[in-house]
Amino acid sequence: MPEPLKNLYTPALIDNLSTSIKKRYADFNTRHFKQYVFSPNWEQLELKQRLRHVTEGLHTFLPDSYTRALKILKPVSRNFTGFEYMFFPDYVELYGIDHFDESMIALEHFTRYSTSEMAVRPFIIKYPKKMMAQMLRWSRSDNYHVRRLSSEGCRPRLPWAMALPEFKHDPAPILKILERLKQDDSEYVRRSVANNLNDVSKDHPKLVLKIARQWHAKHPDTDWLVKHACRTLLKQGDPAAMRLFGLKKPSHVNLKSFKLDKTVKRGASLDFSFTLSTQEKKLGKLRIEYAVGFLRANGRLSEKVFKISETEYQDNNRDVNKSHSFKTISTRRYYPGKHSITIILNGNKLTRRYFHLK
C-alpha cells in the first residue's frame, strides 16, 4: 500500500523549513515552531489538516505584519519545490484576503515552486471580476506554472478545494482563459484546460460539446485536449460525444462467452473475459468499457465506469480479458454482497453479470 500523502510532512522537511526561515529572520524560534507543528494531535491530522497546521504555525512565529512575513517567505520558498510546500500559498489564502495587490504578487511567485491553485479561490469568491481579470493576465505569462494557475485555479470542481458555485451556474468568465490556453506550448497547461472543461461538462454538457466541435480537428494538441475534456461525457455514453469522436452504435458487434468469477474476496481481484465478433470484415472503431456496480450502505448498486481500450480493430473477432482489483483504497469503501459488471461498447450497455464480494 502506498505511503499516505500526509506523511510527506516529515521532521526533516520541517527542520529544513525552519533553518531556511531562520537565515532570513533571526527572531524565528525554530525549536518552538517545530514543537508547535508536531503537537500531540499531529498523528490524527490528515493531509490538508497538516498543511493548514503548518501554515498556522508559520503565522504564529513570523512577524504580525503580513507584508514583512511575505518578504521572508518569498525568498525562502525558492528552496522548496513540490506539492507538499503548498503552505506558502496557503499563507496567502489564510492571511492575505484583505491585501489584494500584495497577495497577487505573492501567489504568482509561490505557484512557480508549489501551486497556488487552491489559494486563489477565496479571492475569486470575494473579488470575482477583479480576480478573473488577474487570472486572464496570468494566462499571458511567460511562465507555464503561472499560465496553468490561470486555468487550474478557476476550475468549478477542483478536487480537494472549495467549489466555485458561480462558475457551476455560469462558466462564461472561464472561457476566455481556456480559449487563450487551448494551444499552449506546455502539455501541463493544456491538461489543465481539459480538466477545467471536463468540470464544466458536468453542469453544462451542451456548452462543452459546442466548444469541442469548434476546437476539434484544428490541431493535434487540441484534439487530445478535446478528447480529455469530454471524458465524463464519453463515460456517460453521451451520443453527441460519441459521434464527435467517430464512435458509432455497435449494432454489427456481438458479445459472447462472457465469463467472470462468481465470488471475490476484498483485497483480491475479479477476473472476467468476453469475446467481440462481427459478420463484417472488421469490428471497426470501438470504445470498450465496463461498469462496476458497487454495493452501497443503502443496499443499492452505484456504477462506476472504467475504460478498457479505444482503437480501430481490423479483425472481426477479439478476445478481451480483464482483471479488476478490490484492494483497499482510501477513496472507496467496499461492502460485502452482490455487485455487478456491465460491458459497455461505444456508450451502449450490452450485458450485465453479477458476482459476490466477500
Description:
This is DNA alkylation repair enzyme. It comes from hydrothermal vent metagenome. It holds the Pfam family DNA_alkylation. The protein is α+β, with helices and mostly antiparallel strands and about 350 residues long. It folds into two domains: about 5-245, ARM repeat domains (Serine Threonine Protein Phosphatase 5, Tetratricopeptide repeat); about 255-355, Immunoglobulin-like (Sandwich). Helix content is about 45%, strand content about 20%. It is built from 16 helices and eight strands. It has a five-stranded mixed sheet, with no helix packed on it. It has a three-stranded antiparallel sheet with strand order 1-3-6, with no helix packed on it. Helix 12 runs antiparallel to helix 13. It is globular and about 80 Å long. It starts with 10 loop residues before the first helix and ends with a strand.
SSE diagram, text form:
Blueprint: H1 11-24, H2 30-37, H3 47-61, H4 66-77, H5 87-95, H6 100-110, H7 121-126, H8 128-138, H9 144-152, H10 165-169, H11 172-181, H12 187-201, H13 205-215, H14 220-229, H15 231-235, H16 239-244, E1 253-260, E2 263-264, E3 269-278, E4 284-295, E5 301-313, E6 317-325, E7 337-345, E8 348-357
Parallel strand pairs: 2-8
Antiparallel strand pairs: 1-3, 3-6, 4-5, 4-7, 7-8
Helix pairs in contact: 1-2, 1-4, 2-3, 3-5, 4-6, 5-6, 8-9, 9-12, 12-13, 12-14, 13-14
